[in-house]
Design goal:
The chain is an alpha+beta fold. It is built from 31 helices and 31 strands. The strands form eight sheets. Strands 22, 23, 24, 25, 26 and 27 form a six-stranded mixed beta sheet that branches.
Length: 957
């Protein structure tokens, strides 16, 4: 029948597998699965408890990263990971596992709020509409989710527990001795009993309530503080470091970001830096993601050194304490809290003109430079610049090793977010310090002996000498000398000396900063925090959770001129005075009292920090998660010492955001005894991206990809030649292809197969709608091997397959099984295709057992057609829970293999031998072959090299 004449084909083959047939089959089976609860994963207890026999099977917990329900809906690039996890989950069910696979929605976020700002429509309305649209799109793909477990982060029953977790973190501190979080009440008890000294030396009883709150704030894992933040006037909110681009602009909206000092909530993730690093070793994650987290945490060993100044000290962290004698000046970050304290009213006598920046007083110079630095991102400030900038504070500190008075500068290449925000500058041995010293006419002293011929007079050098393998010179004082030592020994000696003198100690520093947790937005989880008359923060009791969002007239935070750094936040919640000012009885024995609510909201990352736990026990209103249920699905076990989800699939872009935050929350909950798994995700897999061609006109604007005409390798839009480039798929680039469009033309099973067959799952690949038809034809051939297209009758026969077919079948079973287990879906599809083609070319009716195995092989990949054919083959139960075929090893191994026999390195014979033949047997067979005998022509044999069963190499004497 004609492939090019669909109408004629439909008349000749009324029961052919077409898009219309696929649509009917797919809708019917989706309805059946929903009604039957086919994908319901039973818990060992609770309201989702189920079949004890199924619970007794090995479990498998498979997860996708939370989708955000965009109003634009899905394009075909979005479901790549969802289809992959669905295939894997289906395969695991068929190999005897109790599989938990479901999907919720990460629904708080800026897009819905921005829409609300523009239209006045409540963000919940648009968000829920987007969720319903996405659910419909995902359902059409036949994803086998346990829908009883789905939720959205905006559900009050969900964010009640997000708020509850915040309260647990707020009411906890990190015990450095025990290396774990403990309730803050234990710390209070230690202060009260005197077991632990109160900072400042006073007794706990002598402190006021506000003073006690300040002390505890220095320990709490969730705390509010006045700290340098990334302030974005254009968005009206502060941003975490991870939300600021490398060029100092907001990730969303592309607005300028400035440094400002504001009171914000933070999470003390830095307390867990060592554990976050160490536990990476036990996780089955891509090495690239582990490396990103290690670099972001940035562990470095060095020393803390105090430089005395005006009766106090500036503390620096350095990894090169061996070069202390070479420190000739200090540099503080412009935001350093000590800058104002040590800045005098007038310039000291003899101050160099180049140090003042042309300002009349140190105060003017510092203020002007701070304003200049605030307009730059951290990346810009750290970038190597030709001209070094900075200004003298007017203060001098004392170098503790030699007593020298060294000037203190501020400069933007020093960041408050790393170390202590202060450095000792050793210009002879640091490139940036060298450039700064030259620009400001500061002394340069060599203390590490150069390995080249430049000599030790650093005043003559053109650049710094940096080495970790050289001798220390010019480094001796009254009671310590490093001269002649190597770097390692010098570090050890000076560190011991600093500790003995009480002016420093060996220490470890981290690049990781505490997590900024406040947002000046409406559409987020309200903080379960209220403030009393003294400004002391109190957490709400569990009985008052969830604290729901109030109605407001204006959803937008107050925004400002994007370039105006001299502004501060005003939140939408602060405008609802009836909600902000309340009288509450917190159950602390003080009775009803007036309070003021926190008017910031949590960041959109909060809800995704723990959602893997809510899937386990989604309807539990009494606990975060039942311990027995959590232990069953996520508890530690053989090969997974930290527990966690068995397979977590999502994009690599979340390496140092969501993944790091979720690991932190899991560790806190684990320390406090709420869960048994200190890690949320055992195995992580990053899927690639489906890309698409973007077509741009002469102005560089995208034009619709569907309207492109190709002629002689060039591309045209409305007669104008356009440029083609490979990029992301999206509505703005006018190249998006919707899953509905592909399903309408070919069916969902074809779309599933195509996305899985495009290439390895972890590699990005270009979308080509024209290539989809290849997988459509595979399904049509599969259908024809079971169903007569003219009559609709099943054509399989009750007969035993011949040996050739048995070998083709069992090789396919063996290969597909290994490929599905290893997430190699493209090669699994190739093996199914090869088997299907073998049956097609055989030209005879397919034996019933072979047809059944073929349907089972493709069932994880194309579940709708598999269900339909399974029923047509005479079964009344779903294919979903059938056993996946197991290969017979007798038919997997080839009956014979070809062995190449070489004489003097040249091929002289090819022998068909058993794959199990031994080296000795193969040597005898090869030497007896008449072609080999002729090639030797009576010559003796010096050596025979045998690599059974495929090679014999004979070396004549």
């Amino acid at each position: 029948m004609s492939e090019t004449n669909p109408a004629a084909a439909e008349v000749a083959a009324p029961h052919r597998y077409t898009a219309a047939v696929a649509a009917e089959i797919e809708a019917r089976w989706q309805d059946f699965w929903d009604g039957d609860g086919t994908y319901a994963a039973p818990n060992p207890k609770g309201d989702l408890a189920g079949d004890p026999e199924l619970v007794a099977k090995p479990k498998k917990y498979v997860m996708d990263m939370f989708p955000y329900p965009s109003g634009a809906g899905l394009h075909v690039g979005h479901p790549l990971g969802y289809i992959a996890t669905d295939v894997f989950a289906r395969f695991q069910r068929m190999t005897g596992h109790n599989v938990l696979h479901t999907l919720g929605f990460d629904a708080f976020g800026l897009p819905a709020e921005q829409h609300a700002v523009q239209t006045g429509e409540h963000p919940r309305v648009t968000t829920e509409a987007a969720i319903n649209n996405m659910k419909s799109q995902l359902r059409r793909l036949g994803l086998g989710h346990d829908k009883r477990r789905s939720f959205a982060t905006i559900d009050p029953d969900y964010y009640k527990w997000t708020q509850w977790i915040f309260v647990q973190i707020f009411n906890s501190w990190y015990d450095d001795e025990a290396k774990k979080a403990r309730p803050i009440s234990e710390l209070v008890a230690r202060f009260e009993s005197g077991e632990r000294a109160v900072p400042g030396g006073r007794s706990w009883d002598a402190l006021s309530a506000a003073e006690r709150a300040d002390v505890l704030g220095e320990y709490r894992l969730a705390y509010a503080s006045d700290a340098p933040v990334n302030w974005c006037p254009g968005l009206g909110t502060v941003l975490a470091n991870e939300e600021v681009t490398s060029d100092g602009r907001s990730e969303r909206g592309n607005f300028p970001v400035f440094k400002a000092k504001l009171r914000q909530w933070n999470m003390r993730i830095t307390a867990y830096a060592d554990r976050l690093l160490d536990d990476l070793n036990e996780l089955d994650w891509p090495e690239a993601i582990k490396l990103q987290q290690r670099n972001w945490i940035g562990r470095s060993e060095g020393a803390r050194v105090d430089f005395p100044i005006d009766g106090e000290a500036i503390t620096v962290f350095t990894t090169r304490q061996d070069t202390l004698f070479g420190a000739t000046y200090m540099v503080l970050a412009p935001e350093h809290p000590l800058v104002e304290k040590f800045t005098p009213a007038a310039w000291p006598e003899g101050t160099h003109d180049v140090w003042t920046g042309g300002h009349a007083t140190p105060g003017e110079a510092v203020a002007a430079y701070r304003a200049q630095a605030a307009s730059k991102s951290d990346v810009e400030r750290q970038a190597e610049a030709k001209d070094k900038t900075g200004v003298f504070t007017g203060a001098f500190a004392t170098n503790p090793v030699n007593g020298e008075q060294i000037p203190v500068f501020i400069a933007d290449y020093v960041l408050m977010g790393y170390g202590t925000g202060a450095i000792m500058a050793v210009p002879a041995h640091d490139t940036r310090d060298f450039a700064f010293a030259r620009a400001f006419e500061l002394p340069v002293r060599c203390v590490v002996e150069p390995s080249d011929d430049r000599g030790t007079d650093a005043s003559t050098w053109d650049d710094a000498f940096v080495s970790y393998d050289a001798k220390i010179v010019n480094s001796h004082g009254e009671d310590v000398s490093l001269d002649g030592l190597g770097v390692t020994d010098a570090k050890a000696r000076i560190t011991e000396w600093l500790a003995r003198k009480g002016i420093g100690e060996g220490t470890v520093n981290f690049r990781l900063r505490d997590w900024l947790f406040s947002r000046q937005r409406y559409w987020g989880e309200p903080f379960p925090i209220v403030y009393d008359e003294d400004g002391i923060a109190h957490s709400l009791p569990e009985s008052m959770l969830p604290l729901e969002l109030p109605e407001v007239e204006d959803y937008s935070p107050r925004t400002f001129d994007p370039d105006d750094a001299d502004t501060s936040p005003e939140t939408p919640l602060s405008r609802n005075q009836d909600w902000v000012d309340v009288t509450l009885d917190l159950g602390d024995g003080r009775g009803p009292r007036p309070y003021r609510r926190e008017t910031n909201t949590m960041p959109n990352w909060a809800g995704s920090c723990w959602y893997e736990l809510r899937y386990l026990d989604p309807h539990n209103s009494e606990k975060l998660v039942d311990p027995e249920i959590e232990q069953y699905w996520m508890g530690p076990r053989a090969g997974q010492p930290h527990g966690g989800v068995d397979l977590y699939v999502g994009g690599a872009e979340h390496a140092v955001l969501h993944l790091l935050y979720a690991r932190f929350w899991s560790k806190v909950l684990y320390d406090l005894g709420h869960i048994s798994s200190p890690e949320p995700f055992h195995k992580l897999y990053n899927q690639g991206m489906i890309q698409a061609f973007v077509y741009r006109d002469s102005r560089g604007f995208p034009v619709p990809a569907t309207e492109i005409e190709e002629r002689d390798g060039a591309f045209f839009h409305n007669g104008e030649q356009v440029k083609r480039e490979l990029g992301k798929m999206g509505k703005s680039l006018k190249n998006a292809v919707t899953p509905e469009a592909i399903c309408e033309e070919y069916g969902a099973d074809t779309l599933r197969l195509y996305e899985m067959a495009m290439g390895p799952l972890d590699v990005s690949r270009p979308w080509d709608t024209r290539a989809v038809v290849g997988q459509y034809r595979l399904l049509q051939r599969l259908w024809r091997n079971v169903v007569d297209e003219a009559t609709g009758e099943v054509t399989v026969v009750d007969a035993e397959p011949d040996e050739t077919t048995l070998r083709a079948l069992h090789k396919a079973i063996d290969g597909v099984r290994q490929d599905l287990e290893g997430l190699r879906f493209n090669t699994a599809i190739a093996k199914v295709t090869e088997l299907n083609n073998h049956l097609t070319k055989a030209g005879a009716a397919v034996p019933h057992p072979v047809a059944e195995s073929l349907v089972l092989l493709i069932a994880p990949l194309a579940p709708h057609i598999a269900e339909e054919l399974w029923r047509k083959l005479g079964h009344t139960d779903s294919v979903v829970h059938q056993d996946f075929p197991v290969a017979d090893p007798r038919y997997v191994v080839d009956e014979t293999v070809t062995c190449v026999v070489q004489v003097k390195g040249k091929v002289k014979a090819r022998l068909e031998v058993s794959p199990a033949i031994s080296d000795d047997e193969l040597e005898k067979v090869a030497l007896a072959d008449e072609k080999v005998v002729a090639a030797l022509d009576g010559a003796g044999i010096r050596k025979v090299i045998v690599r059974a069963p495929k090679l014999v190499n004979i070396v004549p004497a």
